[in-house]
Amino acid sequence: MANTKDNLNKYGKPFIGFDEPSSNAMDSISGYTGILVNSPTRVTGWNDKGYAMSFNGSNQYVQFNNKLIDSNTFTIRFK
Questions:
Q1: How far apart are CA 39 and CA 68, in angstroms?
Q2: Element (H, E) at 52
Q3: Residue 53 near residue 43 (C-beta atoms within 8 A)
Q4: DSSP 74
Q5: Exposed e or buried b for every residue in 50-60, given b needs 16+ CB within 10 A?
Q6: Is the overall model pTM greater than 0.85, yes or no?
Q7: Which has the closest alpha carbon to 35: 15, 53, 61?
Q8: Phi, psi of 47 (to 5 degrees)
Q9: Residue 25: how many other CB atoms lie within 10 Å
Q10: What is the pLDDT of residues 47-77, one digit of tens each?
């Protein structure tokens, strides 16, 4: 059975899991690097595995220099 990462690899979309213990956000498939702006908080990930990011909703975000997705549609999963 394919998982999300397999499908993203097959269809060429980025996968940014925020699983790095520190530093910037890395795309584990395409190699994009996102810069964390205004210090969002790194927290325990979904199901207590890996890591996730907590944003304040006003001025914290991840900035990428390259366009990640060629459409105007994207998905963000919230815990």
A1: 21
A2: strand 51-54
A3: yes
A4: -
A5: eebbeeeeeee
A6: no
A7: 61
A8: 60, 25
A9: 20
A10: 777 778 888 999 998 887 666 556 666 666 6
State the Cα–Cα distance between residues 15 and 33, nearest whole angstrom.
11
Instruction: Determine the 3-state secondary structure of 78 from DSSP.
Output: coil
C-alpha dist (Å) from residue 6 to 13, 32, 71, 78: 10, 17, 20, 21
Could you give the angle at the alpha carbon of 15 between the alpha carbons of 68 and 30, nearest 5°? 65
* Element housing 62 (H / E): strand 61-64
In whole angstroms, give the CA distance from residue 74 to residue 7.
15
Residue 41 — φ and ψ, nearest 5°? -90, 130
